[in-house]
UniProtKB/TrEMBL annotation:
This is Crp/Fnr family transcriptional regulator. Residues 29-122 form the Cyclic nucleotide-binding domain. PROSITE patterns: CNMP_BINDING_3 (PS50042). It comes from the Bacteria. The lineage of its organism: Bacteria, Pseudomonadati, Bacteroidota, Sphingobacteriia, Sphingobacteriales. Transmembrane segments: none annotated. It holds the Pfam family cNMP_binding.
Amino acid sequence: MDKLPTFSALTHEFKHLFKRQEVAAKTILLREGETAKQAFYIKKGCLRICFNNNGKDITFQFFFEQEFVSSIESFKTNQPSLFTIESIEPSVIYSISKRNFNTIMESSKTIKQQVEEYTFHRLVYYQKLFLSRIKDNPELRYRELLKQNPKIIQRIPQHYIASFLGITSVSLSRIRNRR
């Protein structure tokens, strides 16, 4: 997947628009139902997006170093976020307000184009994820996860991986033991 400009590429001209934060593991950066007022760049650590489904915590995606994350639909439309953003590990992040983000978009056509392309690629990723949930069995989803993003298996607690795959931790243990 294409990446947004690296943070170091942004820092030369726009560093003053970002706020550095160190957050502990299990820190909520945005709660489901709140309006997103910031986007986050991950310098170090790991974040997840999740939502509540009838009292059950469902992990939808993981984000690692050199990735940006926000509730894009909330950030752009001022509507309540459909999910929570939470740190999994102690993390160093840089946050940017909507106003400052818009300043960058207005100041640089190149960055704006890269953000639009990245957003399109995220949409394609979500479509693939959605279709995989419908057509692939959990073991195939796990094998694809190993192939496409092995750092998830190395860094993420098993219960979050199981939630991401749409299975229980016990089922995930069985799949891992068959390998």
